[in-house]
Amino acid sequence: MADNPGLSGSALLRLLAWLSPAFPLGGFAYSGGLEKAIDDRLLTAPGDLAPWLETALSHGFLWNDAVLLAASHRADGDEAALGDVANLAAALAGSRERYLETTALGAAFVSAASAWPVPALDALCGAVALPVAFGAVAGSHGMELVSVAQGYLQSQVSQLISAAIRLSLLGQTAGLATLAALEEPIMAAAMRAAASSLDDLGGCSFAADIATLRHETQHSRLFRS
Questions:
Q1: CB 164, CB 34: distance < 8 Å
Q2: How many alpha carbons lie under 13 Å from residue 3 in its C-beta half-sphere?
Q3: Where would I find the H helices in 4-144?
Q4: Are 136 and 84 in contact (CB under 8 A)?
Q5: Distance (Å, rounded) from C-alpha 115 to C-alpha 112?
Q6: Contact predicate 105/130, CB 8 Å
Q7: Which terminal CB of the chain, N or C, has fewer other CB atoms within 10 Å?
Q8: Rounded distance, CA 187 to CA 150, Å?
């Protein structure tokens, strides 16, 4: 797969800062339904995680996140268009916990990113999903879309792998091997998303979607989703 032009200078430093685990979003508290999937024994071995996450990247919630990120990135300067994307993203959340997860993380990102001059923040009010907030802010800084999408998806996959490690599905070494195995799917999803439109939204990951719904009633749990 050909490399994209990428980022450099202050744009690269800002993107790395926003994607850092130290950036105060609180993503460590969420598993995107992964906790319930493991509890239901849909994933029982380390090798089960990569296909699960690849499905999310190709036609699951991570794919939809990437499409929404791209749309909000392209809406830079158009408050009406950005508002429409934000409303659509909130409506597409497949469960109550998924809605609370993405909007809580979106609000945290908007608040933390205000440390930089971000004109797009003025258009983001109410419930804003994380990919919409991230795409809008990155677009307002002139960051190249493919790199932004790759970074976002890498960060989300890393967070889910971290959750799986804490749930004892796999260890750190296997977690890193899973992340390495997902490099090509992450890059492919980012490239597709950069050329997508809102018409490309949609998915077919029923087991994952049902797990996010069932997690709401799980008796004992570590994560908020």
A1: yes
A2: 3
A3: 9-19, 34-39, 49-59, 61-74, 79-92, 96-113, 130-140
A4: no
A5: 6
A6: yes
A7: N
A8: 6
At residue 207, the 3 state secondary structure works out as: helix
The whole-model pTM stands at: 0.93
Q: List the chain pLDDT tens, one digit each, 225 residues.
A: 445 556 778 889 999 999 998 899 999 998 999 999 999 999 999 999 999 999 999 999 999 999 999 999 999 778 888 889 999 999 998 888 989 999 999 999 988 988 887 766 666 666 799 999 999 999 988 899 999 999 999 999 999 999 999 999 999 999 999 999 999 999 999 999 999 999 999 888 878 888 888 888 888 888 888
Nearest to residue 135, comparing CAs of 122, 121, 125? 121
Tokens, residue 160:
């889910």
